Amino acid sequence: MNDAVAEFLDYLTQTKNYSVHTATAYETDIRDFIKFYDNYIGADVSLSDFCRADTICFRAWMADRARRNLAHKSTARALSSLRGFYKFLAKTHNIHNNAIGMISSPKVPRKLSKAIEVSDVENMHDAIRNIDDKEPWIAARDWALVLLIFGCGLRISEALSLKNIDVRGRPESLRIIGKGAKERIVPVLPAVLDAIDKYIQLRPFGADANDALFRSVRGLPMSPRMAEKVIEHIRHYLMLPDYVTPHALRHTFATALLAGGADLRTLQELLGHSLLSTTQLYTKVNMAEIQNIYEHAHPRAVNQDN
Fold first, then answer.
1. How far apart are the C-alpha atoms of 169 and 209, rounded to whole Å?
2. Mean pLDDT, to the nearest integer, of 204-211?
């Protein structure tokens, strides 16, 4: 089984161009099922055993995950990972399992993200300057990162993957490689370029064309966790809600564009969503805001009994 799993992970990273992080998530899900199946049949699972797993077994695994208090969303993802592995085995090892296709994923309520108040984003500038008052270049870096995510709607991984050469000459747009190695072109506001220029002028290292744009205090490429900590420090300094995260900055970008009249297809392209249904979540957010305004301000929404 270990060899088959290793082959699948190579397929994900080499052929499908999935990130190592994504491949690791697939491996975790698959090995969780293998571990359960080992106990279920009382022996180490072989490839031939794998093809004989039935609906009772799959449902027992999902019930076991529920007993371990794993979220529906996590189990839905695990089931999807397992389906992908079975498809790979059918292609490469002629191992087929029809039972997996008869299992329904647990229903996962889709939570609507919250947008950050624009005034709070503006206040982040002074907060960053005060937090990093002893290291002006770090303050410039953090503000450039915040503006890049907020102004271009990038994921953390996308922002941190940029190299110096990508922003040389103040380009009007950026070529972004997103999830699944999908490429998209994102326009850049002058204010974002101004912040990046200031950061580059103050940065003490990492000036080669192919060096990562955003650097750590030690001069290494900045990691996603470092970027998350930047927003955490800002959030704590300004005493903002817990939902203020790098992803919330991206979400605020999308909500603002939608409120400004952007159509869903354009927004889908800018955000790099594979499915329009993902982008459509922002219409629900926008309608929720409109409904809130209506209920509090529209004269026809006033309770007639008052």
1. 12
2. 91
Is residue 61 within 8 A of residue 33, CB to CB? The reply is: yes
pLDDT one-digit tens code per residue, 276-296: 444 445 445 444 544 454 454
Q: For residue range 82-114, what is the model confidence (pLDDT) as tens digits?
A: 999 999 999 988 888 888 888 887 776 655 556
CB 188 within 8 A of CB 152: yes
Summarize the confidence of residues 125-136 as an average pLDDT: 88
Question: Do residues 199 and 244 make contact, with C-beta atoms less than 8 angstroms apart?
Answer: no
What tokens appear for 278 in the block?
A: 């993902």
Please, where are the H alpha helices in the chain?
2-10, 20-41, 47-51, 55-67, 72-92, 118-131, 136-152, 156-160, 164-167, 190-202, 224-238, 246-259, 264-271, 276-279, 281-297
C-alpha pair distances (Å), 82 with each of 22, 105, 277 = 14, 12, 23
Task: Provide the whole-model pTM.
Answer: 0.55
112 φ/ψ sector (left φ>0, alpha ψ -120 to 50, else beta) = beta
Buried b (16+ CB within 10 A) or exposed e, 22-60: bbebbbebbebbbebbeebeeeebeeebbbebeeebbee
End-to-end CA distance of the chain: 69
pLDDT in tens, 172-204: 888 888 777 777 777 787 888 899 999 999 999
What's the distance, CA 159 to chain centroid? 12
Q: Distance between CA 182 and CA 143 in Å, rounded?
A: 27
Query: Which residue numbers are catalytic?
Result: 155, 179, 247, 250, 273, 282
Is 186 strand, coil or helix?
A: strand
Question: What is the distance between the alpha carbons of residues 14 and 12, in angstroms, rounded to a whole number?
Answer: 6
Which among 75, 90, 98, 69 is positioned nearest to 11, based on CA atoms?
90
Percentage of residues in the chain with pLDDT exceeding 90?
A: 29
Domains located in the chain, CATH noted: 2-102 (1.10.150.130), 118-293 (1.10.443.10)
Whole-number Å distance between alpha carbons of 84 and 69: 24
